[in-house]
């Protein structure tokens, strides 16, 4: 059974997950360029994964084609497990609880080769709708406080399988990074009676030069944050105030987000030669969908520099690329057209 342990100095919770150590690739660095072998996410191998908890079907059946477009399955080697009670307890000054939660994989399409950025916007919208449906379903579990959606793309970003996919982990506590973000947004609201994220959106889109705006449509904006931790770190935010992704992402909104997400990923691919990246979806905690001070958003972080001793020891990040330069470069790259999906 996984376990959650709390650091008594800084209050940080750590997942001790023995299940993860059973993965065949655990602690063994894979050789770059290793040819793909058996893939459990490809059509015909559905029995090699746990049974699906959510499936999107094609609008019409095509002979010989898979009967699914997006599948969500429990992770075979979960960081947290859905079974059991929390059993909060102390051991002297230490706090611990059972590693109860959920860990699922969103298989973003049946084809092995294409990246998420290569898929049609309508297909990406189905992936985004799968995120919404799984968050809504897991939010019914009273043991859970947060559902984090994330994507590891590329070996350097932590992906262990090449087939395009993302993941979710639901936890019985709010992750520290999100807690800090929520507390900072709340302090800003108490001071100014406005959402800080709304103010960021208004200021960046009202800027005559749009110095940090990469692209936008009538519902979302992609921008380089004012103080990015990483080169070409890019955020996508809704133009209107919405605290909770899962409560507001209807199909038309998912399509608008899919169009901008695809466009942004293609710009990054063309500008940076298909970099490894992570993205994370930050949304309001379970049960707090109407927060006036918080604003859901997607953070995309290409892996272009290494986090080393100074960053880990201090919490500071060293970013050699000003966000204004990154935004200008990504805006200009669009004139060359979409990134080549070929490999």
TrEMBL record:
UniProt-recorded Gene Ontology molecular function terms: UDP-glucose:hexose-1-phosphate uridylyltransferase activity; zinc ion binding
Organism: Eiseniibacteriota bacterium
SUPFAM superfamilies (alphabetical): HIT-like
Keyword Zinc in record: yes
Active site: 165 (tele-ump-histidine intermediate)
Cofactor: Zn(2+)
Free-text remark on how the cofactor is bound: Binds 1 zinc ion per subunit.
Domain Galactose-1-phosphate uridyl transferase N-terminal: 3-175
PANTHER family with a match to the protein in the record: ADP-GLUCOSE PHOSPHORYLASE, UDP-GLUCOSE--HEXOSE-1-PHOSPHATE URIDYLYLTRANSFERASE
Keyword list, A-Z: Carbohydrate metabolism, Metal-binding, Nucleotidyltransferase, Transferase, Zinc
Chain residues that bind Zn(2+): 39, 42, 112, 163
Organism classification: Bacteria, Candidatus Eiseniibacteriota
Protein name: Galactose-1-phosphate uridylyltransferase
Lipid biosynthesis is among the record's keywords: no
EC number(s) per entry: 2.7.7.12
Similarity-based family: Belongs to the galactose-1-phosphate uridylyltransferase type 1 family.
Signal peptide coordinates: none
GO BP annotation list: galactose metabolic process
Gene3D superfamilies, alphabetized: HIT-like
Boundaries of every Galactose-1-phosphate uridyl transferase C-terminal domain copy: 186-309
